[in-house]
Amino acid sequence: MDTGLQVSRTNNWEVLAAESNYCPSELARLCHVSLRTLQRRFASNYNMTISDWMRQIRLAKAYARVVSGEPIKAVAYDLGFKQLSHFSRVFKEVHGVAPSFISPRGRAKLAAQNGTPMQPLSPLQPPTPAPLVAIELPRVASHAPPLRSSVAA
pTM for this one? Predict the structure, then answer.
């Protein structure tokens, strides 16, 4: 299916979101469309904003990485959060617990404080990310100037 996107590397939107560092304007640039066009098409097809979708993707990745034992600070910065406190607040809003409570180190510390053995993580699942996006965007002509011949006629 031709989506009208001129993306040569991939049409996987999660990969593109990561390449854009979860920045909607950078994602639009990668797709060769204006930010407004991307926002409009995304909203009309999925009833959510591109920013909300990117937030879901980032926080689902964050959940998996924190549970696997990666340092919270590294996860936050790798996923484009500039402030650790902002990451923790948003993480807690979405998942209901602070990232420190689901990290293996945090769970071990809590178990030691309570005098109980560390229990396996409860089946708290991150929200399912939005479906892979396949929206119709108009074709955009290349903005590169035409090549000039170096041979004189």
Answer: 0.66
**140, two tokens:** 């955009």
CA 2 to chain centre: 24
**Cα distance between residue 99 and residue 85, in whole Å:** 11
103-110's contacts with Cβ under 8 Å and 24+ in sequence apart are 103/66, 103/67, 103/69, 103/72, 104/67, 104/69, 105/69
Q: Can you tell me the distance from the alpha carbon of 91 to that of 87, in angstroms, rounded to the nearest whole number?
A: 6
DSSP classification of residue 122: P
| pLDDT, tens digit (0-9, with 9 covering 90-100), for 51-103 | 998 888 899 999 999 998 899 999 999 998 999 999 999 999 998 989 998 88
Which phi and psi angles does 12 have, rounded to 5°? -80, 115
